[in-house]
Amino acid sequence: SHGLVPGSRDQWAGELRLSDGALRGTRWGANGALTLVHGSEAYRAAGTEGTTASDFRAFPYRRFGGRWGVTYDVTTLARLSAGYRLEQVDTQLPVAPTQTLADGRVVDIDLHLRPGESRIATAQLGFDRDTRPDPILPHSGGRITATAEIGSGALGGSYDFLTVFGRYEHWWPLHDERQTIGFRLAGGVVIGDAPRFDRIHISDVDQLLTPRAMGLVLSNAAPLDILGTRPDKPSYGDLGGTATVEYAARLFRGIGKNRVYGGDLFVAAGLWGLAETEDLRLRDRALWNALPIDIVADAGVRIDTELGIFELTIGNALGRLR
Questions:
Q1: Which residues are CB-neighbours of 261 under 8 A, at least 6 positions away?
Q2: Closest CA to 87 of 176, 198, 206
Q3: What is the pTM of this model?
Q4: pLDDT tens-digit readout, 242-275
Q5: How far apart are CA 30 and CA 19, in angstroms?
Q6: 18: number of CA atoms within 13 Å, CB side?
Q7: Which positions ≥6 away from 255 have C-beta within 8 Å?
Q8: CB–CB of 40/58 below 8 Å?
């Protein structure tokens, strides 16, 4: 529902996806998706901290588009991918959005969208290598992924930008793989005039916040300020990532036709960061105080079922309540 932020509205989204990972038994695959988003995006109009609804304003938007791609299995464990995305975006932006700072100054803000109708057109290349025997509840092996996506007027879009994202994880088994220690590293960089939806949102790096759902931002909650670094952390950035260490122990594994395949107890902790590179370059404070980084921690139970993955965790609870 739309909540209390002025200008907001109810949100919904839907997507239809089709894919075939091995066309006619070959190494080639194909996939496609159609997406429709009826959203409402909030931005800060007053102050630099806190989540009071009156300090925010919102604008409505609509996205409709599709993605088409092909894949090629280099080996049984490694895959290359390429794709094209085209979206139509309709927005009702404020004429001149501003933010009133705590000292009374009024500054212009960039919402990173074109007013009215615009298009997002991109080409994407990716690589994925996965050696984990179990992708949901891994206790050994690892995975590395990398994706580069470029948007350009030459492809039919209204935005010229480049995004590069990567992820690495590895798991070391303990006690006959009944326990494991894992390390996860993920991050990315956004270069150029990327639309708001393609930028890194704070919930993408801080798992103690409500995650985006199909691009919809569902909460304006601020992250926990544990390290005391820069309390006015940005909601969107062009440089961000996480590094976490996780311990997991097997609770059970399903047998036969059971629809609950397995469950793990886990504890994880690490660091996350999100920044606008311009803010770091033109800072008016010490580097440590300017760094928008903090601690992330989580613990709970992760269950793999026929219907999907269920997480009964501290982070999941905080993300739904805040």
A1: 136, 253, 254, 304, 305, 306
A2: 198
A3: 0.90
A4: 999 999 999 998 876 678 899 999 999 999 999 8
A5: 6
A6: 5
A7: none
A8: yes
